[in-house]
Amino acid sequence: MPEPVRHRILVVDDERLPRRRLRQLIDEAPGWDVVGEAGSGREAIAAIEDLEPDLVLLDIELTDRTGFDVVSAVGATRMPPVIFVTAYDQHALRAFEVHAVDYLLKPLQRERLHAALARQADRMRAAGLAALRQPLNSLVAELEGKSEKAPAAPGDRLARILVRRKDAMRLVPVGEVRWFEADGNYVQLHLDGATHLVRATLKRLERDLDPAHFVRIHRSRIVNLRFLDRFVPWFSGDWKAVLVDGTRLRASRHYVKRIRERTTGAAE
To answer: Is residue 268 part of a domain?
Structure first.
């Protein structure tokens, strides 16, 4: 009796503990072997080309590039089938569903991961690589066709952000965030009495947040209008944004001018 086919999987995540967790969960899934790990987009590209895995479990938000950049660098026609992993409950997930490309939300659940792997194994038995790559090609083409500056459609606005709290994860409604502040490759979320750090860019957040409720006041800050009280003059033509709790944040004249053009009574 022939031995059952085993499939080879590459794990890509830029954090060591999530990679270890993924290895443990995959070891419990029948028919799958982890053939390698990658901790960055650059490492992922090299590993895909060297190891030629049957499947890539690919984190979208890597430190040096996105998972979509990895697919583009390898080439969608040469890229193995992919299951994307993301902490973002936002518009991109809808695109995955439309194109039948699997994705998993962090924190990963054993049942969901095993179901996704079983689904992928069934597809690999039933279809050739060309058929498996077709939805991935369509997804990448759609996402690459969107301008980085193009705003999300109203129904696709970012509503929640996943943040880590000690040994747990919490989905924070964006309406609870008083302001966002850039911090290198991360963004700080300032809430009432708490600050969380998430891997993201302020540019991407500005694109995905609802402009009716969030405004950029500085190249490194976005404020929730619900918590913005007023602007007061500062040095050299710049302003200070005063929040309802008395917090004062530096605001650039360029952004204040834009806010004044679309609102009334916001500056004094």
So the answer is: no
User: In this structure, are strands 160-165 and 179-183 parallel, antiparallel, or unpaired?
Assistant: unpaired
Does 200 lie in the same domain as 119? no
Per-residue pLDDT at 4 exceeds 90: no
| Any domain includes 163 | yes
Question: Is 173 found in the same domain as 74?
Answer: no
Reported as a single tens digit per residue, the pLDDT across 81-127 is: 888 888 765 545 555 554 546 788 887 889 999 999 998 888 877 76
The residue out of 87, 115, 144 marking a domain boundary is: 144
Q: How far apart are CA 217 and CA 239, in angstroms?
A: 9
Q: What is the mean pLDDT of residues 248-256?
A: 92
Sign of the Cα pseudo-torsion (17, 19, 24, 29, in order)? positive
| Inter-residue contact 214 to 231 (CB < 8 Å) | no
Q: Is residue 184 assigned to a domain?
A: yes
Which tens digits make up the pLDDT trace of 195-224?
Answer: 998 877 888 788 889 998 999 999 999 999
3-state percent breakdown (helix, strand, coil) of the chain, nearest 5: 35, 30, 30
Range of the domain at 66: 7-144
Are both 129 and 246 inside the same structural domain? no
- Rounded to 10 deg, the angle between the 110-126 and 16-27 helix axes is 60
